[in-house]
Amino acid sequence: MMPQTADLDTMADALGARGWIVVPSFFAAAEVAALAADCRALDAAATLMPAATGREAGRRQAGLRGDRTRWFEPDALSSPQAAYWQAMDALRRGLNQRLLLGLESLEAHYALYPPGAGYARHRDRFRDDDARVLSSVCYLNEGWQPADGGVLRLHLTDGVHDVVPQDGTLALFLSAEIEHEVLPAQRERLSIAGWFRRRELAHG
Question: Rounded to two decimals, what is the model's pTM?
């Protein structure tokens, strides 16, 4: 799926005004089903690994998150991943033209949360790396019900906003500004976490 001009205008307006937006059905059902099958196949092959937080020597896992992940490799994308990557790169270019955010690249990974797993409240930009500008989450869960839990909770200046992880939904928010968490779910929960990045600034 390629984002349409009107959709890009709406998304850019929301991001510019409040720093976040949730777009239902951004990805078509067939695309989502292919991505979900791809994620589950990788997990069955034991190539999704327990996620860590932080960078390099500071990486840690102790209780902050309970998902398993696998990073997309831009030079070795599966067919479903390539379709996702193409759509998100078109979105990157469109938002860049409208918001001048300096978005130069994309990084993304599958995230599979077993029942009962979550991710504690945090921001996505590292203290020693200011390259992440815009966070994205694409959900791959068909038939999700409110009783299933597992919402993405955005902590905003005027309160919280819960995003139901329904298949095809895309959430975008500013990486440095918006704290968020994943609440535990009653069933397996699949998503693609992604970040639009600018060129990393030199420090020192």
Answer: 0.91
